[in-house]
Amino acid sequence: MKSSDLIVLNALRAARQPAVVVTEIASGDVQVLTQAEALAHGLVDEIKPRLLTGKSGMVGVAGAEYFIQLHLPPPRLVIIGAVHISQALAPMAAQCGYDVVVVDPRTAFATPERFTGVTLQADWPEQVLDADPLDAWTAVAAVTHDPKIDDLPLKRALDARCFYVGALGSRKTHGKRLSRFAEAGYDESLVSRIAAPIGLDIGAANPAEIAVAVMAQIIEAHRRRPLGDLDSAA
After folding, report:
1. Spatial contact of 102 and 93, defined as CB atoms under 8 Å apart
2. Of 67, 68, 60, which is closest to residue 20 (Cα–Cα)?
3. Which residues contact 36 (CB under 8 A, 6 or more apart)?
4. What is the Cα–Cα distance from 218 to 21, expressed in whole angstroms?
5. pLDDT at residue 211 in the model
6. What are the chain's domains?
């Protein structure tokens, strides 16, 4: 790989953008592709499924052999709300390989003693997300049950095409949320991406069980994204 290719690759990784390296075995030619370039490449049928799995490997096409290497951003979970569910969810997500950020402006809840080993931001979500924007490789779980804190990051998550967007609350609470989002101009088809009530329906009855249900739903969303989602996020 040429130094210019390495510069491009490192820049994409620093920007949390997917990179695909295609090497033709016979010639040794190397291409470093952005996601958009990869989805327009002649090997798109081989590349596109790998953008979901992250699995590199050899492929043979039209008598030629290629090695396709994936460099995907590490999945990230942004938890809005330093509540009991978050205390169980944060370490669980970290164990699953997620970079975890917990955001809550309420300093009585957002304390280092309650959240060890993860990034804790005791600021309003707007401040945090302005400095570190969401992207398609991020999951957002809003669990404060307070629209003053939850609504903005949920809207940002929809705008950024985050692969998972979940919100705590009953169906009645979510109905009111849908009305607020509709008044703000959000299309029903877009708002329908919010998982609410949050988590898989496993009959969870306490914060730890709810965290299990949420984490399972996040993993499912990450591993089973429709291929079409890649086109809209490119």
Report:
1. no
2. 68
3. 234
4. 27
5. 97
6. 3-71 (no CATH), 76-230 (3.40.50.720)
